[in-house]
Amino acid sequence: MIANLQQFLFHTLIGETLIGYLLMFVVPLSLPIILVTLVGVQGVRHLFSYEPRPTFVHSLDPRIKILYPLVIGTLSVLLNWNFVYLLLIITVIPWILVKASFVRARLVLTMILTPALGIVWSQGMFYVPLTGHIHFLFTFPPTLNWIGTPGISTEGLLYGLQQTGRVMVAASATLILLLTTKPSEVIWAFYKFRMPPAVGLAVTVALRFLPQLIERTTVLLQVMQVRGYNLTRPRWWELPAWPDYIGRVCAALPTLTVPLLIGSLRSTSTMAMVVDARAFGVSKTRGSLQEHRLAKNDYVAIGALALVTLITLTLILLHIANRQA
């Protein structure tokens, strides 16, 4: 029985086409489902919200915490892929100092690893080296040639693993900023950088409305189900029920997107009235923001960041860790 099934799946055109479609569509589509399942709506709200804690990282000057992801992200672009993973280990140190809870650590780890897995899988399918032999783990049959990829190769997976380190470094350095910095501190830091205050306001508004948008979407889906609209997802083995489910989801999109768009426009209008009522941007000087003075912890953090930058540039100038094509 098992031998016949293997013969059908791996040695017939129909079986190879079925496996190819599963590898090409089911695996990438499962990553967002895993993300939503592990993180959830409340998890996204907590992930993009400030968490007050008496830690070393929380006490740092907001300007340092904003420069940190910019500097680390730039260094990750300049370094070769193997040294990027050493840089990733360095970005774990602030998370250890923050002493995040298990729930928050699980959310952050999910947000970092899920896009990384997607990059590795996509490169495994579409990356083709210019020279050398390609070893395919699975070769797509002629029925899938229209996709534009010959199959999943070990070289592509390795290349995706090399490139995804930069994504994880940038995500790790950025999420620590969101966790330990108040929105008012972000605006103050942009003001001290001589940047327009509207830039800091735009960043904080975007961080605020992203979890709200996800929460509103969930509430609208629940309202539709309460009013009798069936959005129950069938099991993966219930193949005859999937076309009807996809049709119901497509039919529900206008009902979902129109209230969501109207609600977003109303929130934007309310935010604009609040900003005008508080005379935002009328004066070039700000008097309502808390001033931050450089302290001992700030100098320690600046020295550590400067040391990492200096070591990285030295390795690049010595042609030890410079990025290779």
From TrEMBL:
What positions belong to coiled-coil segments? none
List, alphabetically, the Pfam families matched. CbiQ (PF02361)
Give the GO cellular component terms, alphabetically: plasma membrane
Principal subcellular localization: membrane
InterPro entries, per this entry? ABC/ECF_trnsptr_transmembrane (IPR003339), ECF_transporter_component (IPR051611)
Annotated keywords = Cell membrane, Membrane, Transmembrane, Transmembrane helix
Provide the topology term for how it sits in the membrane.
Multi-pass membrane protein
What compartments host this protein? Membrane
Instruction: Tell me where on the tree of life, at the top rank, the source sits.
Output: Bacteria
Give the stretches traversing the membrane. 21-44, 66-95, 107-128, 163-181, 299-321
Under PANTHER family, the record lists: SLL0384 PROTEIN
Q: What is this protein called?
A: Cobalt transport protein
Say which species the protein is native to. Ktedonobacter racemifer DSM 44963
